[in-house]
Amino acid sequence: MERTLANRKYIIIGFIVIVGIIFVIRLFYVQILVDKYILSANNNVLRYMTQYPARGLVFDRNGKLLVYNEAAYDLMVIPRQVKKPDTAALCELIGIDRGEFRRRLEKARNYSPYLPTIFEAQITRENYGYLEEKLFRFPGFFVQLRTLRKYTYSVAAHTLGYIGEASPDLIAKNPYYRSGDYVGISGIEKSYEEVLRGKKGMKIRVFDVLNRDKGSFREGKYDTASVAGIDLYSSLDADLQVYGERLMTNKKGSIVAIEPSTGEILCIVSSPSYDPNLLVGNIRKKNYTLLLQDTVYNPLFNRALMASYPPGSTFKLVDALIGQKEGVLTPDTRYGCPGGFSIGNGKMVACHAHPSPLDLTMAIQLSCNTYFCRVFKTIIDNRVYGSTRAAYENWRKQVLALGFGKKLGIDLPNELNGNIPTPSYYDKYHGKNRWRSMTIISLGIGQGEIGLTPVQLANLAALIANKGWYFIPHIVRAIGRSDSLNPAFNERLSVNIDPSYFTTVIEGMARVVTAGTATGAAIDSITVCGKTGTAQNPHGKNHSIFIAFAPRENPKIAISVVCENAGFGSTWAAPIASLMIEQYLKRKTTRKDLEERMINGNLINGKIFENERTQGNISQD
Q1: What residues have CB less than 8 Å from 95, skipping those under 6 apart?
Q2: Phi and psi for 154 in degrees, rounded to 5?
Q3: Under 8 Å CB-to-CB from 20, ≥6 apart: which residues?
Q4: CATH number at residue 439
Q5: What span, in angstroms and rounded, lies between the C-alpha atoms of 126 and 124?
Q6: Domain enclosing residue 378, as ranges
Q7: If residue 111 lies in a helix (H) or strand (E), which one and from where to where?
């Protein structure tokens, strides 16, 4: 019994000794070897300051700087360290009232009493100097260096985009972001956020009780450096973008220009627009609200990617290609035009006066509605498919293969599909399998339920220029270095239409400009191939549309222009496209009278400076 008690005593003593040794070792480890515990013990005098990286710069295709960074400062607060501040003085310094002061402090306290939170964002360098002198009076407040985006040119707002504070949802989903971090909200800034943002660093600074910076903790031993974001080289031509926005002054619509051989977007204009510098700094929220409330001009709406228009007669090119592929149309196919195409019950699709009969080339040249209604009817009534529905599904499949009715995949956010109606859509309105080619005949001339975006129209011009293939249109051509081409857009896409079928279409487009519906688009010494469109608009005056590419051999630019409520395609869209082509290929324009008329033309307020019917074009299409 005594031996048992003795053994227990030694066991207990041994256990106590072991525990004591463990505590001594742990205490030595904590106090001597591991500085991180020292940091925790000194939280009241140490400040962990995030080092935000400079976002990557953005250049145009010729190396011109489009987006750069400028120093700014955020006033930060650590709520636990705020001790009876001189509220009135601080409110006066940053221009807020006491109620706003309390609201912001409570918001920061709810986020975390111990972590720094933005109290006043994006203070300019000028205001920072004044604030810094008095900051010692406000324990718990400090200033952190940030950068603001600045824009060399006041253009391309929708494309370049803007940055703003990360949302709570994003912070919850992505561990990179913390409260107060900035993130790309739109445009390139959003699409290439992970490339542009860089990598955050951290500095630990020592502050005394008077809120004065006493230097780095342990001489910066625990500091980490930030890594700047990667630069982007856009495909934009800055000069062309500026010129395009001038031409679209006081007009609603868009211009999209593409380099056919690469898919690189040379310019992308949405009008009305806004100066991108309006959404920079602490004025961003106020200006954004004002822009958002402008329901007359809708400057935040990116028409180039989001607006959907009936393409009008530009769509005749699509049926010319599909008709040839289906074997129901040849270059020599001739149809007469009695002034329109009868659809029964005394109704008809009207056509303007022109010579008759016509072959395919002349039908494109003169934009004959009758001809292309007949082409569409032969496609849909093709007996090979056994039914209207099957023939329509085949037609729709080929239209989708040309890049319509779906997103092209451009590297900008908010691109929309457009619309190529499904058979079920017509079943709903006409009864299942109770509709025929004559029911939907307006599709043959680009009207009815068809909706295409301007970027899709420009891509149509590009794939015709290439005789059957295209690259996905994109806005960033290189990442990191100007010669490091973006690998996401190097796949050449075929539309599976024989190149020979494009020959007649291209000849017709060339004649459109030399002796057809868009003679006002002709350029001396440059062969322009184009097609006008006048899109019916149930809400007002028709939209003016034009697509083109140039030169005919080895094309360098493909373009679409849409001018809302501007009437005929030949009147406004075609001349604007012509001036854009000349500016890009010649680096200057020589038709100053035309240029002045296009720039000064005010289509938003209904002031059209010259009568549409007297501007030197054969057709009103």
Answers
A1: none
A2: -90, 50
A3: none
A4: 3.40.710.10
A5: 5
A6: 246-286+304-581
A7: helix 98-111
